[in-house]
Structure formats: structure tokens, C-alpha cells
TrEMBL record:
Modified residues (4-aspartylphosphate): 61
NCBIfam families given in the database record: sensory_box
Domain of life (superkingdom): Bacteria
Reactions accelerated catalytically: ATP + protein L-histidine = ADP + protein N-phospho-L-histidine
InterPro entries: CheY-like_superfamily (IPR011006), HisK_dim/P_dom (IPR003661), HisK_dim/P_sf (IPR036097), PAC (IPR001610), PAS (IPR000014), PAS-assoc_C (IPR000700), PAS-like_dom_sf (IPR035965), PAS_fold_3 (IPR013655)
Organism in which the protein naturally occurs: Gillisia lutea
Pfam families for the chain: PAS_3, PAS_9, Response_reg
Protein name as annotated: histidine kinase
Enzyme class, spelled out: transferase
Length: 590
């Protein structure tokens, strides 16, 4: 809408020239700065209202030659003028419709027969001011509506007495998960959890006409619990007593506060009450903080430790190395210092492992943080382990057996040099998995061996002794006697299987040779009993005939048969004797 103090531009839509001249006269009497434009038809008016010219008011005659329906005419003119006031000029015959035009957006209506300069001027100026106020109010309502609807903070309007939702914004819909239609069928009480209903109801009743703030716990549509801060203020909304409410979701804030509190508790548990010794120092070793663990580890209370320098209790032979590593923090964020010795309150030495972190850039710390732990027992055990490994290595090298050390959890098999000398595999490149080892067991022995190992694992027997064939790198098999020992933890869980594989191939071959020779001797014995029996039977038969025969000639022939059979028997006995002697000699040589 365009207004000026010096001149008013008014469009008069009037087809009757005499009426237009009369209007012009009336206005010139009251105001010299009025500039009139005329449109005698709706078509002309439409062109003028669509032009860049800004009118301050429009005077409309309802009787135009190119529009028959007065209501349509009014609606179209109001749509074209937008925020410019329209004053209808009508006769007595149209008085009733003139009143109706007010509902169509007309600012005022005037009867032509009662028109004079004062009424016309007053109506124009009042209509312009009224339109200006309406425009400002409309803009204010738009801004309010935009602030309410587009606010990132959840907001709603409640009936002051029933607490029913009258209006909700998009942020409230998004936070609570209810649709706008669902909200308008609810009261705010539907959001309260049972534990806080009485408290909120009391606060609401005591402050029904006042602004108030409170903290509440609400439940969303999906059942989630949220913590909110409420600000509520009484207003009048569409003629109803209401309250507008602003909601702030503080769930994340409370969660952050709880997290911070937990972190503080964790810090106390890890640092203040932890087993590690935590210190804050500068590059010169001046101490700013010492955790209470100093008393546990070194027998020196933290307040006493703070009186000395970080390097004060370190063994003289280790100080230089520790200083050099701390100095590296100028170029590194974190450094692990090799183990060093620290003197305790009773003048004993403990081995310490320390990780130092440069947090000089952190204003909350402003120093070097040293996390130290006592590893004396570990160092002592490590020494014992090294000695044990050295002894094991000596034994492994001294024996011709293949020594295996299988880590059950890691599935890693380690071998001594026997894997090369006995089976021909390269110790450095041989596969170290259990599956590879099992694949080298002879197929005829594999099921038996695996069943035996599974039984040991299941029953927890510490030892196992089993003989089987193991494949060499050239594809041949050797007979081995495997003696293994199972190492388990305190709960019986298998940890390691340490074994010794002894080559039994030669012994097995010797036993097999003896068994073959024994079988041959049995065969010879059987042969002796059958080969010798035939000539003996013939001799005995002839002797029986001689005893019962009187013919000398026949007896002579029978004696010749006896001699021949005896010679044959002698030859057979000598051959058998030679074969038996040969088999015995071969057995002894083997």
C-alpha cells in the first residue's frame, strides 16, 4: 500500500461522467493534494490496477457496463487492489448489497444520494488508516505465525482450563512423534509420566494466571522418556483463554551431565584409586600431581612424593635413558620408556614400566602425564622363562628327536631342527598349523591318532604316547613314537601340547624282518614234516613186506628199493638243513 502526506492518488471506477465530476468537486473542496484517475469500465480499471501506479484508495461504482454481477465485480476489484482500501458507491436500491460488500473485503460503502464532501473525505482517510492498521496487524500475525510454526523449539497453545491442545508447531510434532490431528485430540496431561503428574498439576493450578517455569518428564509416542523445561504464559487465542508454552528438550544436556559425572567417577577409580601410578610433570621432572598409587607401589605417600623430583627415586644407571626418552616428547606425542628401576620406601628396587604423554597444549593438564605400573614380578618371571627357554633350546638341539610345541589357542606349531633332519622339511618355511601337521599323518593311522588326542583334551590326561606313520618331504613315511605332554590352565583349559617324535622306522623294519623269518622257518618246518614223510613211508612199507615174504629174488629187489629211498631221504635232509641254517644266519645278521 502506497501513502503520501503531500498527495493522494485515488482511482474512481465510475461510468457516469456526472457522478465522477461531482466526486472530483467534493474532494477538491477538502484536499488540494488529491490526484484522481478515472476508469469507466471494469476493463479499464483492471488495466490501471495492473500498472506500476500505486493508488492510495479506490472508489467503486457497482453499476458498470461490462459487468452484470455486482458480487463478482467486487471480488475481482478486491483481488486486484490487495492492500488498497476499496469504498463502494451505491444507490438506495443497492443499499442492502452495499452492507454485504463489507464481508467481501470492502473498507466502506457510501450512498450516492447522501454523499457530500465531508463524508467522502472522511471515509477515504479513515479507510486508508484502517487498511494501514489491518496491514500491520496482518504482517504481525504472519510474523507470529512464522515464529510459532517455524520455531526450532517445540511450542503449543493450550486451553487454559481443560489443558487441551489448540495449536502445535512442527518442532513439537517432530519431538513427540504425534501428528497434528493426534495432538488436537489430546491434553497435555497425556504427555506426563505418572511420577510427576501430581507435581505439575499443583504448579499449574497455583500459577494458572501467571507466567511460570518448571522441569518435567514427558513420554513420546514411541514410549521414549524425555526431560524438558517448560515456560508457559497466559494469552488470548481466537477468543479463548489459553496458555502458550515453550518446550526445551534437556535430555541430551542431562545425559551429558551424567556422562561427565561418570567420567569424574571413572577418573577417580582409574587414577585416584587405580593400581597405576599417575603423575604430571614438566620436562625438568618437577611434579604437579602424584596419584595415591605411589603409596601402594613404592610405599611413599603422594604428598611426600610431590616434595621430590620425578628422577629422585630412579636408579642412577637408568636416569640418563629415562631423561632421553622424555626429551623425545618435544617431537612426539607419546613415548614408552623402557623398563627402569625405582627405589621404594624400604630401599628396595622395583621395576617400572612408564608411558609418557605430552599434554602441555591441554589447558586442563598443562604438563607431561606419566602412567607407570610395577612390573617387577613380570621381569622376574621373564628371567625365569628365558632361562627355561635356554634349557629347552639346549635339550632340543641335543636330541635327535623332533620336538613339537603346539600353542592350542593360537593354532601355531613350533619345531626344533628335527623337522629337517628327520623328515626333510625346511624349518623356516614349514607350515605351522595343526591342519598341516594332521595332513601328514598316514591315512590309515589318522583317525586313531585324532581320536586319541581328542580323548586327552576331553579328559584332561597330561600325557599321551602313540605310534603312527608320518610323511616325509619326499613322500615316504616314517614310523614315529610320539610322546606328548598337555599343559592346561587352572580351569583345565588346554594351552600347549609339547611332544617328542622318535624315529622308530629301523626298529619297526627289524621286527618285521624277524617276523618274516619266523614265518619262513615255520614254513620250512612244515615242509620237512611232509617231504621227509613220503620216503620214510616207502621204506617202512618195504620192510613190512620183507618180514612176510620168502622169495629171495623179490626180497633183493625190495632191499634195493630201500637203499634208493634211504639215499633220497638223506639228500632231502641235507637240503632242509642247509635252508634252515641260512634263515637263522639272515635273522642274526638283521
Amino acid at each position: 500500500m502506497h501513502t503520501r502526506l503531500s498527495a493522494l492518488e485515488i482511482l474512481v471506477i465510475e461510468d457516469h461522467l456526472g457522478d465522477y465530476v461531482l466526486i472530483e468537486d467534493y474532494l477538491s473542496e477538502e484536499h488540494l493534494g488529491i490526484m484522481l484517475s478515472r476508469a469507466s469500465t471494469f476493463g479499464e480499471a483492471k488495466i490501471k490496477l495492473s500498472s506500476p501506479t500505486c493508488f492510495d484508495a479506490v472508489l467503486l461504482d457497482l453499476s458498470l457496463p461490462d459487468v452484470d454481477d455486482s458480487e463478482i465485480l467486487v471480488k475481482q476489484i478486491v483481488a486486484l487492489t490487495k492492500n488498497v482500501p476499496v469504498i463502494v458507491l451505491t444507490g438506495y436500491a443497492n443499499k442492502q448489497f452495499g452492507v454485504k460488500t463489507l464481508a467481501l473485503g470492502i473498507s466502506d460503502y457510501l450512498l450516492k444520494d447522501e454523499l457530500d464532501a465531508a463524508k467522502l473525505s472522511k471515509s477515504i482517510f479513515y479507510s486508508i488508516e484502517r487498511k494501514k492498521i489491518q496491514y500491520q496487524l496482518s504482517e504481525s500475525e504472519k510474523i507470529y505465525k512464522s515464529l510459532f510454526d517455524s520455531s526450532p523449539m517445540p511450542m503449543w497453545v493450550l486451553d487454559k482450563h481443560s489443558l487441551e491442545f489448540i495449536k502445535v508447531n512442527d518442532a513439537a510434532i517432530e519431538l513427540y512423534g504425534y501428528s497434528r490431528e493426534e495432538f488436537l485430540k489430546m491434553t497435555v496431561r497425556d504427555l506426563w509420566i505418572e511420577e510427576v503428574k501430581l507435581k505439575i498439576e499443583t504448579i499449574w493450578s497455583n500459577n494458572i494466571d501467571d507466567l511460570f517455569e518448571l522441569e518435567a518428564i514427558h513420554k513420546t509416542k514411541n514410549g521414549s522418556i524425555i526431560h524438558v523445561q517448560i515456560k508457559s504464559n497466559p494469552i488470548e487465542f481466537n477468543g479463548k483463554e489459553a496458555r502458550v508454552t515453550l518446550v526445551t528438550n534437556v535430555t541430551a544436556q542431562l545425559e551429558a551431565e551424567r556422562t561427565l559425572k561418570l567420567r569424574e567417577q571413572r577418573f577417580k577409580a582409574l587414577v585416584q584409586d587405580g593400581s597405576e601410578l599417575v603423575m604430571i610433570l614438566d620436562f625438568d621432572g618437577a611434579l604437579k600431581y602424584v596419584s595415591p598409587a605411589s603409596n601402594t607401589i613404592l610405599g611413599i605417600p603422594s604428598e611426600e612424593f610431590l616434595k621430590h623430583n620425578f628422577f629422585y627415586s630412579i636408579h642412577q644407571d637408568d636416569i640418563k635413558d629415562v631423561q632421553e626418552h622424555i626429551f623425545k616428547l618435544h617431537d612426539n606425542k607419546r613415548i614408552q620408556i623402557p623398563t627402569y628401576r625405582v627405589k621404594t620406601a624400604n630401599n628396595r628396587w622395583r621395576w617400572i614400566e612408564t608411558i609418557v604423554t605430552n599434554l602441555n597444549d591441554d589447558p586442563a593438564v598443562n604438563g607431561i602425564v606419566a602412567n607407570s605400573r610395577d612390573i617387577t614380578e613380570f621381569v622376574n618371571q621373564e628371567k625365569k622363562l628365558i632361562e627355561s627357554l635356554q634349557r629347552y633350546d639346549i635339550v632340543a638341539k641335543a636330541t635327535s628327536d623332533t620336538i613339537t610345541d603346539y600353542d592350542v589357542e593360537q593354532n601355531i606349531m613350533n619345531y626344533n631342527e628335527g623337522i629337517e633332519t628327520m623328515f626333510g622339511y625346511n624349518r623356516d618355511t614349514v607350515e605351522r598349523s595343526r591342519e598341516w601337521f594332521q595332513s601328514r599323518i598316514h591315512p590309515e593311522d589318522k583317525e586313531r591318532v585324532l581320536a586319541k588326542v581328542a580323548e586327552v583334551y576331553k579328559n584332561g590326561h597330561p600325557t599321551i604316547q602313540i605310534e603312527y606313520r608320518f610323511c616325509c618331504s619326499n613322500g615316504t613315511y616314517k614310523y614315529v613314537l610320539d610322546r606328548s605332554y598337555l599343559v592346561s590352565d587352572t580351569s583345565g583349559k588346554p594351552l600347549r601340547m609339547i611332544g617328542s617324535m622318535q624315529d622308530m622306522t629301523n626298529i619297526h623294519n627289524y621286527i618285521e624282518t624277524i617276523e618274516n623269518h619266523n614265518a619262513r622257518l615255520k614254513e620250512i618246518a612244515w615242509t620237512q614234516s611232509h617231504v621227509v614223510r613220503a620216503p620214510l613211508a616207502r621204506i617202512m612199507g618195504i620192510i613190512d613186506l620183507l618180514q612176510n615174504h620168502d622169495n629171495v629174488e623179490d626180497s633183493s629187489q625190495m632191499l634195493e628199493h630201500i637203499i634208493t629211498s634211504a639215499q633220497e631221504l638223506d639228500i632231502i635232509i641235507r637240503k632242509i638243513s642247509n635252508k634252515t641254517e641260512l634263515v637263522k644266519q639272515n635273522s642274526l645278521n638283521a
